[in-house]
Amino acid sequence: MSAIDAAAGPRLRRRGRRADDVAGLGRVRAGVFVAPALALIGLFLVFPAVWTIYLGMTNYRLTGLAAANPEFVGLDNFASALTDDAFWHSLWLTLIFVLVSGVIGQTLLGFSIAWALRHVRGWAKSVIETLVLAAWVVPASVASFLWLALLDRRTGTLNALLGTEGTAWLIEYPMVSIIVFNVWVGTAFSMLLFSSALAAVPPSQMESARMVGAGSWQQLRDVVLPNIRGHILTNTLLITLWTFNTFTPYLLTAGGPRDESSILAVYIYTTAIPGGQLGMGAAISLIMLGINLVIALGYLRVARAASGGSK
Amino acid sequence: MTGEPLLPQAADAPGPRTAAPPPSLGRRMVRHYLSRVLFVVAMGLVLAFFALPMLWLVTAPFDADPSLTVGWPDWTLANFARIAENRYALGSLRNSLVLGLGTMALVLTLGSLAAYALSRVRIPGRDGLLYALLLLSSIVTGTAAMVPTFQLITQIGLINTQIGVILVLAGGVLPTVIFILKDFMDSIPKSYEESARLYGASPLQILTHVVVPTARPGLAFVAVWTVVQVWGNFLVPFLLLRTPESQPAAVLMYTFYTEGGQPDLRLLSAFSLVFSVPVIAMYFLVNRRYGFRFHGGIKS
Amino acid sequence: MAVITTTALVKEYPGGVRGVDGVDVTIADGEFFALLGPSGCGKTTLLRSIAGLESITEGALQIGDRDVTDLEPGERGVAMVFQDYALFPHMDVADNIAYPLKIKRVGKGPRRQTATEVGDGLSLDGLMQRRPAQLSGGQQQRVALARAVATRPEVLLLDEPLSNLDARLRLEARTFLKELQRELGVTTVFVTHDQAEALALADRIAVMKAGRLQQVGTPREVFSRPVNTFVAGFIGSTPMNLVESETADGAVRVAGAPVPLPAGAQGRVGDGAKVVWGARPEYLKWSTTPVEGGIEAEVSVIENLGASVLVSAHRGETRLQLVLDEDDEPAPGDRGWVLPTPRRSLLFDSETTDLIG
């Protein structure tokens, strides 16, 4: 072969054509491997997001004249959304919903359960964990019906237990209902996350704190919380995003009565699909995407600052 | 040793222990028991809160005449026969299965190819791309993009088809799947592949002989996770499937209790249980076998 | 029939860092060849370049009479045992050994047979159905070796072959490895950071530093005539004493004490030259009475090495270490004379660090 040419002495060559990764894949083949997934994501995730921007600027409707020939209306939709009391009301409800059920309810309850059970072994721990987890895993349609049954005005178990027959919880207290419901559904995530975080706190640090006489609260404050700061952050971000975007309360109250529990996700749906105003719905969706983006970026900032600017 | 204490100040400094006299034994016992009782009561309340709604799901399906109130059932299995009698019930479970398995197959194939390439090849901008995708998938939720998604699927003629739902769901979970799988694949020692490569294995052989078998826990995890996601998903099929024949259980079940008159509690209770058991079983299986990996224990 | 020749071989990483910086070396057929150096010296990169796992930036690589510079790893006829053995956890021992044959499309029957034969040769019979996780470290290593030699490679590459074994097993495995290599007669290149391993196993050693070869030679050459102070300091289980000195009156002034010029340096260095005087602790003697050419010093620390002791003696700021027989053990605080053997001492140029003689 090229023995002569190798023997002819040192050659100077620059190469880049042979794959230089462990699998010998090379960039081109790697691209081929990645492309189908990217195409699918592009078409069904990125494109709808981008398309929302355009749709939000049309008077597109589900039916009627504007369904066939949507007109470009510029920022009218945004203007009317932002001047519409119903939108601000919905945003306000969403804020309460996210703060109370997500950030406070799920996180605190999840952490408390994880903290309380951290040294417990045996059946009590399994029973509680299993139940909390089951609430999370059960399909949303089932979970919401379970709550419809529990809260039913006439024959609901809750009324039977409390002796408050005839109380229509979902109508009289719609926000409280969906908040409690959401805590019930979502606490498992925080519980699981925090119990794995707590398990990872170095025992030697806890022991050193105990050696110098720190009590439970002091250990929590000085050793545990600093150690699980990253987990708290992750948990808060995910819980915030999920709670902000959840559609499940619709299955309980359908936003009612009279929009009293019409959080943003529900509001978009009722505006766009039953209400038929697709353009308007898209405009509100875009505002929602914007808020999502702000939450996510805000989290990234905090996360970066927390990790001391390192990658 | 010279006999000098190494830290002379530690010997005579008033420590926290000596400063405050320790509480008497009796008071400590009381405090101890009080906190035990409080602890048990609190856990009891938590237990009740999570158990109460669940009780209906485990009693009503076996009750000959179920009501919305939880009670000791009048044991029967007849309710389950109702599922077969309903026109759409069995079909909807089949639809759920089709959606779940279809999405899983698609996501697993595309996801592992992409994750592998991203894990092993330094494609420029790889990390940025991954994070952008992950960010995107967490901000572009079914809810926020429901209008254009509905339109897109209508435009390409996939409205009312399972394939349309599968594509949308797959697009939504793929970034997370790629992220999780890349993590798993990153943890496979590179020497496995290098060694296969030394013996002349091609990239595809390396993937099928070495990477896939070693990443099996990750793949299993992602598979189960995807099925659970899809199985319970309400919004996407609710939006894109308008006929009862094509709807999965999550949507059909909702129509059981919202459309017209008194809900048929016999059917509803039995159906709820049959619909819930597979995902519960799968979750606990994954939890037992692999534990929750936290980038992955994500259920949105 | 496989000589390995590298010609001005360079491996440059993105960013301009050179892992291997112009290496010319010829490894003879059937030779057991060691690449030795501290971590980050480029020895593993060189090994992986030979394997084809790293692409070569400049220069050429020849195995046998083929230029393999641009060939895929699978086409080079090399086999490699990785530091972590890289046994596939989902395959049993037999499947692991037979895997290279599977890739080469050898039928199932012959594959099994070869795996069994090779496995027997490495006393793996009885373990063939086990998974790697069920094997001890030594067994895993033998499986990895079996898999590597199953295809009768022209070249066998070993990356830190003994580093994953515990200390006692390591000696046993070392002997075993040398026997196996002799038996197979395959050209073998191995990487190690352990000089004792290199000295014990290799026919020849290449000492590397910062991507460049420092010295290539037999263990004896590298040990007794290191070409520079780096090699001198790196080889040997107790590091060589290296003392900045100056020549004067036909002698070396080691910390002020006149010491005879090393035998090899006589006539090669004039007076007033800045030099580094080197002597291995094993070649120094201790005298409790004044001796001509001895260096007076005070014993500060004694470390027991079993049958011998490592004595640290100070003369001012200069520390000298000696390995003495257990019978000659001095006590800390003793004063005495360190006596070098001129035949075994070395002199290096202080500026270039190269060996004068």
What does this structure look like?
- The complex is a heterotrimer of chains A (311), B (300) and C (357).
- Chain A is mainly α and 311 residues long.
- In chain A, 72% of the residues lie in helices and 0% in strands.
- Chain B has 14 helices and no strands.
- Chain C has 357 residues and is of the alpha+beta class.
- In chain C, strands 6-7-8-3-9-10 form a 6-stranded mixed β-sheet, with helices on both faces. A 5-stranded antiparallel β-sheet of chain C has the order 13-12-11-14-20.
- In chain C, helix 3 packs across helix 4.
- Chains A and B meet through helix 2, helix 5, helix 6, helix 7 and helix 8 of A and helix 3, helix 5, helix 6, helix 7 and helix 8 of B.
Explain the layout of strands and helices.
The complex is a heterotrimer of chains A (311), B (300) and C (357).
Chain A: H1 3-7, H2 26-55, H3 65-68, H4 76-83, H5 85-116, H6 123-137, H7 140-151, H8 157-162, H9 169-172, H10 174-199, H11 203-211, H12 216-227, H13 229-245, H14 249-253, H15 264-272, H16 278-306
Chain B: H1 8-12, H2 16-19, H3 25-59, H4 78-85, H5 89-120, H6 126-139, H7 146-155, H8 162-186, H9 190-198, H10 203-214, H11 216-232, H12 235-240, H13 249-258, H14 265-290
Chain C: E1 4-12, E2 18-27, E3 32-36, H1 43-51, E4 58-63, E5 66-67, E6 78-81, H2 93-103, H3 108-121, H4 137-149, E7 155-159, H5 167-184, E8 187-192, H6 195-201, E9 204-209, E10 212-217, H7 219-224, H8 229-234, E11 241-248, E12 251-254, E13 257-260, E14 274-279, E15 285-287, E16 295-304, E17 308-315, E18 318-325, E19 335-339, E20 346-349
Parallel strand pairs in C: 3-8, 3-9, 6-7, 7-8
Antiparallel strand pairs in C: 1-2, 1-4, 4-5, 9-10, 11-12, 11-14, 12-13, 14-20, 15-19, 16-17, 16-19, 17-18
Helix pairs in contact in C: 2-3, 2-4, 3-4
In brief:
The complex is a heterotrimer of chains A (311), B (300) and C (357). With 300 residues, chain B is mainly α.
